[in-house]
Amino acid sequence: MKILAKLNKSMQPFYKISVFLIMCSFLSIHAQERPNIVILFADDLGYGDLSSYGAQDVNTPHIDQLAEEGLKFSDFQVPSSVCSPSRAALLTGRYPMRNGFPVARHTGTKHSAYGLDAEEITIASTLQQTGYSTMCIGKWHLGFMEGSHPMDHGFEEFFGLQSNWNSKSAALKKLYKNRTVVNEKVTYETLLESYTDEAIAFVKSNKEKPFFLYLAYNAVHSPILPSNAFKKSSKGGPYGDYVQELDHYVGKFTNFLSENGYDENTIIIFLSDNGPAICNFGGSAGPLNGGKYTTMEGGFRIPAIIKYKDKFATGINHTSLSSMDLYPTIANLAGAKVPSDRVIDGKDITTILETGKGKTPHEFIYYYNGINLQAVRKGPWKLHLPRTLEDQPFWSKKQMGKPFNGKALKTLPCKGIQTLKQPILIDLDHDMGELKDVSRKNPKIVEELLKEAERVRKELGDVNSVGTDQRLPPFKDIQVKQ
Ligand SMILES: [Ca+2]
Fold this sequence. Notes:
Layout: H1 2-33, E1 36-42, H2 61-69, E2 71-73, E3 76-77, H3 83-92, H4 96-99, H5 123-129, E4 133-139, E5 157-161, E6 175-177, E7 180-183, H6 191-205, E8 211-216, H7 237-259, E9 266-272, H8 297-300, E10 304-307, E11 315-317, E12 321-322, H9 326-333, H10 350-355, E13 365-369, E14 372-378, E15 381-384, E16 424-427, H11 443-460
Parallel strand pairs: 1-8, 1-9, 2-11, 3-12, 4-5, 4-8
Antiparallel strand pairs: 2-10, 5-6, 6-7, 9-10, 13-14, 14-15, 15-16
Helix pairs in contact: 2-7, 6-7
The structure holds calcium ion (CA).
């Protein structure tokens, strides 16, 4: 027995090394099986702002190439037409009314405790727990206090700004690496390049584990300040130049992935967080009406491209999908599970991505402006609901142009339909510009959508009611700025 014990003891290091090598081998194989995931999130980029989406005054060859090599979507929706709620929804897979982030965050004292709730679970948290390296680069805009910081929501690393860069705010010019300021007054025009270089460095540093990169570019949100190399590069003025600069850096990153053998095992997702700020800074929603700050299609329908070489379908896809679908889909592809203790509004669309076919998984789509439910959609039918100016969030309080006159929506103000006395029905299959009310010819559809509006109000809330599954922000008068 003594000899056996001695032998066993002498063999122990070999056993340990063997077990370690087997584990390494398993992890390596496992890492190869699970795809890397990259979300390239543009800011305020409109449905008509890319040449692959019909823009005439810009040239965006790199994003267009992604569209050529991947799936390009014609009806990809975000559940808010302003920055913060759209970001919160993408990361949690939940409507902003459900996840507690229905209005855009600003830096005033009213919003000092307003951040992505610590109880919310993000794509990054889920992937981190299943063995992914996770990084957030760029604009966060979901609160920077403890519990809301990107590193409190599953991102192992962060490089970027807490919100929108602003020349008049000391806090909004600080560039962070994780929780530390690395540049007190970062020059705005350097951000796109810095973010791209940081993204490449992150990928290079991850040899063993699969990675999840959320790269939230600040372009083409205001200020519209393209760097010198891109000034006058387009026919679209500074805005077009800025779009082209964004395209250049998307290309620098995607080319890096292709040239270094990452394509076969990396899913690249490109999309915008909301429609263009056409009232203020320009941009184009193409054939759609309205833009940022509105519940018109121009605010909610955004350019979106998904590429997974040889594994996903290619071409144009017309299915109604949502940015909230990304969470459960990515979780599925990564072999992870979404939480079962809460409603996830997004659906797993893996099969649609693989085949390029399939019906929308969303029976209804809800359009909230702040906490005001303004439209409900089923298939091609979109019912705009009655609303007053008082119902609007702070960014839509001021009347723009003439109110809707009840006859024809020929010249909508860039802020969409701000007031409405009677519901109007749009057939998006034949009228994606939302110009013609067809409610009189389709009373049953109107009735069904009104009924669904009442139902969802009870669940997610509205201006004058709190829903049964609505997380309330930590301040009163949610839609009032100060
Ligand atoms: Ca935005």
